[in-house]
Amino acid sequence: MSGGAARRYVAAALGRARARGPPPLWEPPPARQLRTLGTGGTAALPLLLPPRRHLSSRNRPEGKVLETVGVFEAPKQHGKYETGQLFLHSVFGYRGIVLFPWQARLYDRDVASPVTEKNENVAGHGSKEVKGKTHTYYQVLIDARDCPHISQRSQTEAVTFLANHDDSRALYAIPGLDYVSHEDILPYSSTDQVPIQHELFERFLMYDQTKVPPFVARDTLCAWQEKNHPWLELSDVHRETTENIRVTVIPFYMGMREAQNSHVYWWRYCIRLENLDSEVVQLRERHWRIFSLSGTLETVRGRGVVGREPVLSKEQPAFQYSSHVSLQASSGHMWGTFRFERPDGSHFDVRIPPFSLESNKDEKTPPSGLHW
Q: Where is the signal peptide (predicted)?
């Protein structure tokens, strides 16, 4: 491919990844190479980002140099990415590698069907009935060099597990583990045999130059996936947009613990907030309603989320975080609103799509540590 054709191709791909925002202030390097800013062994955010996050010689930190990452590949419009696929996250910009895919049911309340077909998995929201559709997500590792640069917009220790049977509230996290939607993958290839810095990379993957991609799963990855499947599995994704703020919720069942002669069921939920408009807004308050199968209804109000009041702007449109909830029942529901503030001081509420909290009743033994 000629240099001009390569530049047109990368520009078109970036435009498809995020059509919003002004034209980029960046000229693609020759041979469609991806580069990052860094000095020595330290790398900053990847240069190949959506149009709303641009790095150029004008804003490059003084003393930093461009370092080659790899060669950009065409994003897949059909089919799934394989284990070992290198990628850049199209929203948060970090480097990562695919471990394995999950097939989830996406309930998008922005696309409601007036008639519900029989035998469809349906989630209701007010008068809406939403049919779930199959959507691919990926379990991925995040490059440790990029974690410090995304920590203000996305938690890098968001995948948590119940720690042991002695303390019903103790949790542990696997740093640099994430779930990524298919459309957020910007694939690339690299000749580096260890292109991602993560403590689990060489434990889970090995280099095989005869394969495409050249990183294949070790037996330890397969065993880890099988043993921890109930606590890793992503099954339902819920999405709704209010006044150009899109909220995506993914709940995960974590297991049951006994506390004070009762059973306590735990869930983790991951929430992504994304500003689809150019107006700057700031999250100020959260308002949750939590219904338990035992018949209780709890209301939770508070400032911000996880101790922050994130600003969503054209330059940094998204914020992602995880939190936890426990019930003394095996199932329940959650829904609510986020209150945002505009630059003129006015406020508006953004709906959090309702989602179910379901336990895996066929699983009797929740994890008590990291299983290999």
A: none
Q: What was the pLDDT predicted at 252?
A: 94
HEC sequence for 125-149: ECCEEEECEEEEEEEEEECCCCHHH
Long-range contact list for 361-366, CB < 8 A, 24+ apart? 361/330, 363/230, 363/255, 366/162, 366/231, 366/254, 366/255, 366/256, 366/257
Tokens describing residue 161: 């597990």
Kindly tell me the sign of the dihedral angle through the C-alpha atoms of 251, 275, 44, 18: positive
Does the CA dihedral 260-370-185-41 come out positive or negative?
positive
**How far is it, in rounded angstroms, from Cα 18 to Cα 51?**
7
Contact (Cβ atoms closer than 8 angstroms) between residue 100 and residue 138: yes
The model's pTM is: 0.78
pLDDT value at residue 159: 87
Q: Give me 17's structure tokens.
A: 């990844």
**Could you please report the per-residue DSSP string of 187-232?**
EEE-S-SS-S--TTHHHHEEE-TTSSSSEEE-HHHHHHHHHHHHHH
DSSP state of 56: -
Q: How many helices (H) and strands (E) does the chain have?
A: 4, 23
Among 299, 279, 278, which Cα is nearest to 290's? 299
Structural tokens at position 361: 């009743």
Chunked mean pLDDT (size 10), the chain, 372 residues: 42 40 34 38 36 36 71 94 97 96 94 49 52 94 94 88 66 90 96 95 96 96 91 92 97 88 91 96 98 94 95 95 94 97 97 93 49 47
| Tokens, residue 319 | 């914020």
